[in-house]
Amino acid sequence: MKLKIKWKKKKSIQPSRFDEYLQKLAENETDAISSFFAEFDAHNKLARSEKLKMREDFENALLYYKTSGVPLEKALALLSIENLGGFYIRPPILWYALDDAAKIYPLSMKHGYMSVFRLSVYFKENVVPELLQMALTFTIKRFPTFATTVKKGIFWHYLDTAKHRYSIQPETDIPCRPLRVSRSSSQSFRVIYYNNRVSVEYFHILTDGTGGMVFLKTLTAEYLRLLGADVQNGADIPDINDAPSQSESANEFHRADKTESASGFMDKPAVQMSGKLSRVKPCRVLHFKMDSSSLKLAAKNRNATITAYILALMFVAGKHATDEFEGSVNIQVPINMRKFYPSDTLRNFSMYCGVKLPIGEITGIDDIIPTITLQLEEKTSKQSMNEMLNSTRRMVGAMRYVPMFIKAPVARIGHGFLSDMIFSNTLSNLGVVSMPPGLEEHIDSMDFVLGATLTNRASCAMVTYGDTVTLSISKCTADPSFEERLFELLASDGVKTAVEGTELYED
Asked: In the chain, N or C: fewer CB atoms in 10 Å?
């Protein structure tokens, strides 16, 4: 019996774009690239698949430089393998205990909720993904507490070093969606881009707004360096090739002065805005871009700081957006503790206070500003913040030896529902952000977006860059009453405001 054997035709492997590029180079240039990638191999001990992806990242960056007319010698210098340091060759042996504020976050991740916030920078030109990827590859080693994955211990979660290729992604989803931190080696932040915008979204377990801004500014500086800008590092833009300091990963909550009293976290439920809660959260993000000069003048005319002035507008707009007649409106205001205890920690080091007014007393802006100003002075004082810090430390200490399976359900109820219910809204103000002269000419603006909460219909975050103050509103209802009234109030005070943002993600 004769067998007929069918031979499969071997598929011809098409040369890659980089192979075609190499074939057109002179011998001395191919030798330079061979030496370059030999050095890459000597600095990289990642898993084979990860290493191949990272090598492809370098190849794509070299191809971009080629099409942009950058000489090979300069391209290789910009992409110097020295920028990898020893991060990708050393074993992942470090781990980090969570700071006191962060310990509650991973316990409250059910109910579709995760505490995520976003910081964004808008460039004057569209993003070059090939160089943004390289910027992240070079930058991440400088932030070891960010190059981690969340692990579950017996009593608390902790951060474990994760050595892999940290990748950028095009933005295709709603802002501040939960991160999948349960997967092995998953990261607790994401870097995404869209047109001229680069955003970093952080699980609050990693950092607060101050630490997140340091990371974004450093990533931005490295990206612009790769584009050819003259980068000058400063106090809040560390050199990516410097060794991280121990103080940058410090848990600073122990620094509070000891006090007899400790302010609690519980309060009565606050008045919530009306409007059906959306299924998709947030269902819309709006950016109120205000001229800083006209905003300062409006606040000055009302004898208020900018924060007190914006809070007053939020109280009035919030009353307009609710059907309630009784109870109190309570707005959460995060406070950066570094102003009381100077620190360069990149971990969480913020507390908060609640500015509260009975809804019946919210009449006109001028009527409520004195009360708001007084509450801000009292509740954001060092003594009041020390009481909050002591409360945090005592609460964490009390739960120290309680197994996770017992305290997790309690934390989900307490943080997931009660903390939302006692506030009506949030105003988180990062203040003024600046970039060195050689970089600022490439940047158009910045914004700061808070993730959705369970019960609040809106959350507000503010940052100032250049001549623009951007107030971003994360909506959890399609009801537009709050933002429409807010815009009317700003316009009536002569504040020049342009509104940008997304369409509704759902009807």
From this structure: N
Is residue 111, in this structure, part of any structural domain at all?
Answer: no
Q: Is the pLDDT at 265 greater than 90, yes or no? A: no
pTM above 0.70, yes or no: yes
The reply to whether 193 falls in a domain is no
- Calculate helix-pair angle for 27-42, 48-67, nearest 10 degrees: 140
The larger pLDDT score, comparing residue 468 to residue 186, is at 468
Number of domains into which the chain is organized: 2
Amino acid at 265: F
* Residues paired with 149 in a beta bridge: 160
CATH number (domain holding residue 329): 3.30.559.30
Identify whether the C-beta of residue 465 lies closer than 8 Å to the C-beta of residue 441. Answer: no
Say which residues have a Cβ less than 8 Å from residue 233's Cβ, sequence separation at least 6.
Answer: 221, 239
Q: Which domain holds residue 491?
A: 264-501
| Nearest in space to 206 (alpha carbons), one of 248, 153, 170, 164 | 248
For the segment 451-478, the average pLDDT, to the nearest whole number, is 95
Q: What is residue 71's predicted lDDT score, i.e. its pLDDT?
A: 97
Residue 400 is assigned to a structural domain of this protein: yes
Q: 160 is written with which tokens? A: 């474990």
